[in-house]
Design goal:
Number of helices: 16
CATH class of the largest domain: Alpha Beta
Structural class: alpha/beta
Helix content: 25-40%
Strand content: 15-25%
CATH architecture of the largest domain: 3-Layer(aba) Sandwich
Radius of gyration: 25 Å
Distance between the termini: 59 Å
Oligomer: single chain
Shape: globular
CATH superfamily of the largest domain: P-loop containing nucleotide triphosphate hydrolases
Largest sheet: 8 strands, mixed
Length: 453
């Protein structure tokens, strides 16, 4: 029996005489043929080969790709990461599949470029932001000296090497799912979102590489990522690389007290929220539980009032006067250093910008203005910048040696991303320093304590 495989709208169409059952293939009653999702193409071919079933493989329609020779020389730990990804899995028998978890500043992009060079095949790089699209296109064009395609930001141009946003890859997946043999997912934790998973499901690319500084997701979605991209095959922490490949660092937590007026207002607003949860018998164990509460607030006025009270409590907690006094002391102490200030909310970022005359970057900052601020920070005209989450990932941030977190979620991912912004090796061999400023006896203290164990 000979089996013919063809790509069709995000699936692999399997044509056979039906004389032998095929592993994992589901019959499509409309066409009378078998089908599997594009993501299962590599496993299907492997299973057919293992069972000695002859197949005519017409799935991939790959354009010719030019010379893919990179000038990068990998460090030892980068070689180890690449080898772990390229090796054959004992569970599936498949190679060149899996995710790498390495800290910000450790050169994940360099490893991906080495993977592209090794595979020497049409590649789609999928990224979460347009800033990263620009960065990847620049890097790929410099290394491989050929046109780089782009999907997103108003462009829909496909080349053998193409960079796409997650949104554009999602919209085009069933149309171009046979045009690439290697998929690189930068910030692969984004793929855990239910809609974005279809990118990996619909593409037939057998080779898949996921990159992240923090792989595990609190909602358990990393398990879906492992199924679609491959398991976590190599993992290094900041501590593993600090001192040799990243700067040594220290973390200082500054605990501050709310003023009596802030404390009274905080307890009042927090009480409204917790009382509602108790009356309604609602337990918030995960982000999805909180999302359900948000949906409920659309029809339940008490739920909406509780959420508004919670937001006001967070605003008081995260932007307290004591925090701003502590920040003033930190900025005075580090007047000769390069400092990045992180907040969770635009309002606080703009308040800090106005109070301390610090340039600010938020989601509202235009691309040209953001680029100008970062260029001035890079060349030393600005020595400090404040941001609300925008610089956590997806932006090439110039070297800094001090970071201050004034407010945040307390998640391990957020903390690791922000720490990574100051860990590039320093010319003088100096240590990086991260400050956390937290309000005592608030929810902020509890989540920070839980994160740091």
């Amino acid at each position: 029996m000979t089996v013919t495989l063809r790509y069709e709208n995000g699936t692999v169409r399997v044509e056979s005489d039906g004389s032998q059952p095929l592993p994992g293939v589901v019959t499509d009653d409309r066409s009378g043929t078998g089908r599997v999702p594009g993501a299962e193409y590599a496993a299907l071919v492997h299973d057919l080969d293992q069972h000695g079933i002859e197949n005519r493989d017409e799935v991939l329609d790959l354009p010719a790709v030019g010379d893919l020779t990179s000038t990068y020389e990998l460090r030892d730990y980068q070689h180890e990461a690449l080898a772990a990804w390229a090796g054959e899995s004992a569970d599936t028998g498949l190679s060149r599949r899996g995710c790498l978890e390495l800290p910000t500043g450790s050169g994940k992009t360099v490893i991906a470029i080495a993977a592209i060079e090794e595979c020497a095949t049409p590649t789609l790089v999928v990224v979460p932001t347009l800033d990263l699209v620009d960065q990847w296109r620049t890097e790929l064009a410099a290394e491989f000296d050929q046109p780089i395609g782009q999907l997103g930001g108003g462009e829909q141009r496909i080349e053998p090497l193409t960079v796409s946003t997650y949104d554009s890859a999602y919209l085009r997946a069933d149309d171009i799912g046979d045009k690439f043999e290697l998929l690189v997912f930068d910030e692969v934790h984004h793929l855990g979102g239910e809609g974005y998973r279809d990118i990996a499901r619909l593409f037939a690319a057998p080779y898949r590489l996921g990159l992240t500084a923090t792989f595990e997701r609190p909602d358990g979605a990393h398990e879906a990522i492992e199924e679609l991209v491959g398991p976590l095959v190599h993992q290094l922490s900041v501590a593993d690389l600090a001192g040799d490949h990243l700067a040594d660092y220290d973390v200082k937590r500054l605990r501050v007290e709310l003023t009596p007026d802030e404390r009274e207002r905080y307890e009042e607003k927090q009480g409204v929220f917790t009382d509602y949860l108790a009356r309604s018998n609602i337990q918030l164990r995960s982000g999805s539980d909180y999302q359900e509460l948000v949906k409920r607030s659309g029809t339940d006025p008490e739920a909406r009032n509780a959420l508004l009270a919670k937001q006001e409590a967070k605003r008081i907690m995260m932007g307290s006067e004591a925090k701003l006094h502590a920040l003033a002391d930190v900025l005075d102490r580090h007047r000769d250093d390069r400092v990045i200030l992180f907040t969770a909310h635009n309002e606080l970022a703009y308040d800090i910008s106005e109070r301390f005359l610090v340039p600010v970057i938020t989601h509202h900052t235009g691309t040209d203005e953001r680029r100008d601020i970062l260029d001035r920070f890079r060349d030393g005209r600005y020595s400090r910048v404040v941001t609300s989450n925008v610089l956590d990932e997806g932006v090439d941030v110039p070297d800094a040696n001090v970071a201050v977190i004034l407010s945040g979620t307390g998640s391990e991912r957020e903390f690791t991303q922000r720490l990574g912004r100051i860990l590039r090796p320093k010319a003088d061999g100096g240590r990086a320093l991260l400050y956390e400023i937290v309000s005592e006896e608030t929810a902020e203290t509890r989540v920070a304590d839980r994160r740091r164990g």
